[in-house]
Amino acid sequence: MKPLLLDLANELRGDVAAGRAVPALSTGVTTGLGLLVAHIAYAAFIFSGPLSAYSSQGVGLVLFGCFAACLVVALAGGYRGAIAGLSPALIVGMAAIGSTMDASGEALFVSASVALILSAVLTGICCLTLGGCAVGN
Question: pTM score, two decimals?
Answer without folding.
Answer: 0.78
